[in-house]
């Protein structure tokens, strides 16, 4: 276990507010980071993606950095532009 993982584990044990918000916040961060990596791998800038999605660069930045309340249609369009397939899984 890395030092960061140990810190997070200990912090969750002693700080209930941190523990309650951490997992949900991490999920949102992870989705945004995956979208960002797909965009970078496709060689597309935020500005180029914004034009194709008919939105502003700031909206793309917000999605990549916060990923809160993203419409399914936006995710589908994002994936299509990146040449990816969107899969939703309930486990």
Termini Cα gap = 25 Å
Over the alpha carbons, how many angstroms does the gyration radius reach? 16 Å
Report the order of strands and helices.
Answer: HHHHH
Mean pLDDT: 85
Please write the CATH class name. Answer: Mainly Alpha
Structural class: mainly alpha
**Total separate domains:** 1
Q: Please tally the β strands and state the result.
A: 0
Known CATH architecture:
Orthogonal Bundle
The largest pleated sheet is described as:
none
Shape: elongated
Helix content: over 70%
- CATH topology (level 3) name: 434 Repressor (Amino-terminal Domain)
Measured by DSSP, the beta-strand proportion falls in: under 5%
Which residues sit in consecutive blocks of at least 5 with pLDDT less than 50? none
Number of helices: 5
The CATH homologous superfamily name equals lambda repressor-like DNA-binding domains
Task: Please describe what this structure looks like.
This protein is mainly α and 91 residues long. The protein has a single domain, classed as 434 Repressor (Amino-terminal Domain), CATH 1.10.260.40. It contains 5 helices and no strands. It has helices at 3-14, 16-41, 46-52, 57-66, 72-82. The longest helix has 26 residues, at 16-41. The two termini are 25 Å apart. The model has no long low-confidence stretch (mean pLDDT 85).
